Amino acid sequence: MSGSKSSDALSARPAAAPEMPLEMTIHGLPPLQPGVADARRTRSGRWKMLAVFAVCAAPVVASYFTYYVLRPGQQRSFGELIAAQPALPAATATTLDGVALPLQSLKGQWLLVSVAGGGCGPACENNLYLQRQLREALGREKERLDRVWLVSDGADVPGHLRPALAQATVLRVPEAVLRSWLQPSPGHALQDHLYVVDPQGHWMMRMPANLGKADAGKAKRDLDRLLRASASWDTAGRPGG
Predict the structure, then answer these.
(1) How far apart are CA 218 and CA 220, in angstroms?
(2) Is 206 helix (H, G, I), strand (E, B) or coil?
(3) Which of 110, 139, 201, 237 could form a disulfide with 88 if both were Cys (CB 3.0 to 4.6 A apart)?
(4) pLDDT tens-digit map of 124-145
(5) pLDDT band at 53; cut points 50, 70, 90
(6) What is the signed CA dihedral for 44, 50, 52, 53, rounded to 10 degrees?
């Protein structure tokens, strides 16, 4: 009897509902607000711009790193390497004939730069002479280097200098612009040095003040090293020139 009751009780229980698979519902996210979307696009654009800059600068950085770091036996230079490497200012220069020219048009070539007033005293003439001699001493590589005289005032250039400047670039640039870009070593003036600028327009080396003929060979070795280190990405002449 009791077994029959138990059986009836079990049969009276409702059948268990069959197990159903777990369902997941994905609800759509609310649309981004215009301000958020614009901010994300701006950040994305900045990262892309930085990536392009890194790709463009990589060959220059790699060549300097290879020559001055991976080759420790030759990393000491006669000229002083400039860590910050300031870029050419976005300023306007003028030729001796008064033609306006963007200063950044000098990009695309290695530059050996001197600075002085138009009157050009003995120290200035010495720098112009050394510029010419150093460039000529580079032999077949000399076409990769331009000699540049940046005249810091409105004084007339002496007539006897003009024939020697026929193959040089001579531009008048306000001294304030020059001082925002180039700097002399402590205790010296802008006109005491020769400055080296890479093809991307970055001032990257300063020769010792009052360079003389006796030390010109050391300066030439620096220029040789720079031209060899950049041979993989730099060629003579400016792009489109």
Answers:
(1) 5
(2) strand
(3) 201
(4) 999 999 999 999 999 999 999 9
(5) low
(6) 160
